[in-house]
Write a structure and sequence with these properties.
475 residues, alpha/beta, TIM Barrel, Jelly Rolls, 2 domains, 8-stranded parallel barrel, 6-stranded antiparallel beta sheet, 10 helices, 16 strands, elongated, disordered N terminus
């Protein structure tokens, strides 16, 4: 992980300069608040803090708010806290399940863009204690995390919907944002990091000033933003995937905002356990008809291993239902991942295709060449041309080789609708296996061994540009 370094012959990097400005702003904030120098804690080794956080490996991102009850991803226009109709709240189940899954932290949604607060804030009556549940959920979660040895991190939407002028005189203000963050960082114990959502702007307080404001209350709390002005310590990866900190593509949505800032200490990625589907939300609890939809434990375990490999943290979104409990299928899946972490399955035999020459029907551009699908690196991938909805990926084993199985990994894109795996025998391509969906880390056993030098994955139909993270062959 990169530490802040000053170039001896040039001025500091832009992000390093911003950190210096942030430190200066913190000092000014301390002075303005009347704190004496003796009250200020000793400097924190943020590089060590980032390494400690990376050591937690992965965590549970808990999204629970108005959208749990609206069936929509965003829920504007709701004024009454009674819209949050939860009939219970089992924070012990959340923390216990996180522990069973081998997770090190819970990332809790304190406030979404609708402005509803999941803690007992003094800034507004639009808060969970004023709902029928009548509970400070964050306080309850803090106790559960301590009980099960789980660390706590917070999600916070730094802006709110424009309709908030209807229930906040003057709208959502900078002072409200600052007061809410102060409450979160002074009343609920140590916070590992804050995941700031910029979807509704920065709330009138720049990211540099927001970072400085938070650091004065908990200097060791790491800060990250999914969009907007680059600041803080963590590169967030909304709908991202495992990747080196040096690879902006791993950041998922908003990666362009973070491009070129090499002084982040840690990379995070997050996505929902609920697959994409029709109707209902995905980041929050959806609808009862989707209660049996869940990503497979094997895919989650694969991305856990990717996070370990690259020193990332992986925040898996799991939305509690309207009774305040995790779905049964989520609990069962997470327990399976926990079992895989404790007792890793035996390593598969080495792929005979790894690192071999490859070519494709078309290429998206530089960095997405055919050989990226056989390099054994889960952080790279082959992509076809932008207008392609079919295509092929061919690998040359260098000599006639007996192959019995193949692995296809779409790296989370799920675009392939019809495919075949083929071997060139003489002048003819012979189909060894076929299917209607490839998916992630899918192993396909051939009906009988195939002897050939050239093999290919033939994508006959795709819903979008064909994208393959790995195509490997095994003896």
């Amino acid at each position: 992980m990169k530490d802040i370094k000053m170039n001896r012959s040039t001025s500091p990097t832009p992000h390093a300069m911003q950190r210096l400005i942030t430190i200066a702003t913190c000092i000014a904030a301390f002075s303005a608040s009347g704190l004496r120098s003796a009250d200020v804690a000793a400097p924190v080794d943020m590089k060590q803090r980032a390494e400690d956080l990376a050591g937690l490996r992965w965590g549970m991102f808990v999204c629970w708010s108005f959208s749990t009850f609206s069936g929509q991803e965003w829920t504007p226009g709701v004024k009454d806290a009674a819209f949050f109709k939860a009939t219970g709240c089992d924070t012990d189940q959340w923390a216990r399940t996180a522990k069973e899954a081998g997770m090190g932290y819970i990332l809790f949604l304190t406030k979404h863009h609708d402005g509803f607060c999941l803690w007992d804030t003094k800034t507004t009556d639009r808060k969970v204690p004023k709902s029928p549940l009548g509970l400070d959920v964050l306080a309850a979660l803090r106790k559960s995390c301590d009980k099960y040895g789980i660390k706590l991190a917070l999600y916070f939407s730094e802006g709110e919907f424009n309709d908030h002028k209807d229930y906040h005189p003057g709208g959502y203000t900078v002072e409200m944002k600052k007061a809410q963050l102060k409450e979160l960082l002074t009343e609920y114990g140590p916070i590992e990091y804050i995941w700031f959502d910029h979807a509704q702007t920065d709330g009138g307080l720049s990211h540099a000033l927001t970072t400085a404001w938070c650091k004065q209350f908990q200097p060791g709390c790491l800060i990250g933003y999914n969009h907007g002005e680059a600041s803080g310590d963590i590169r967030l990866g909304e709908m991202g995937h495992p990747a080196p900190l040096s690879d902006p593509a791993g950041a998922g949505l908003g990666s362009a905002d973070a491009k070129g800032h090499g002084d982040y200490l840690l990379a995070e990625f997050t996505y929902p356990i609920l697959p994409a589907h029709q109707g209902g939300a995905q980041w929050f609890y959806s609808l009862p008809q989707h209660d049996n939809l869940c990503l497979p434990a094997e895919q989650l375990y694969k991305d856990y291993l990717g996070a370990v490999k690259y020193g990332n943290i992986f925040s898996l979104d799991v939305g509690p239902d309207r009774n305040g409990k995790l779905r049964n299928i989520d609990v069962e899946t997470l327990r399976k991942v926990g079992a895989l972490i404790k007792n890793p399955p035996p390593s598969p035999p080495p792929a005979v295709s790894k690192g071999k020459p490859a070519k494709a029907s078309s290429v998206w551009g530089s960095g997405y060449e055919a050989d990226k699908a056989v390099d054994g690196d889960e952080g790279t991938r082959w992509g076809a041309a932008p207008d392609a909805r079919s295509g092929w990926l061919e690998v040359d084993l260098g000599k006639v080789t007996t192959v019995t199985s193949a692995l296809i990994d779409e790296a989370g894109y799920g675009r392939v609708r019809k495919f075949s795996i083929e071997a060139k025998q003489g002048d003819t391509w012979t189909v060894l296996a076929s299917g209607t969906a490839a998916g992630d880390k899918k192993t396909i056993q051939f009906k009988s061994p195939a002897k050939a030098q050239l093999f290919r994955l033939n994508i006959l139909e795709a819903g979008e540009v064909p994208t393959i993270g790995e195509f490997q062959l095994f003896e």
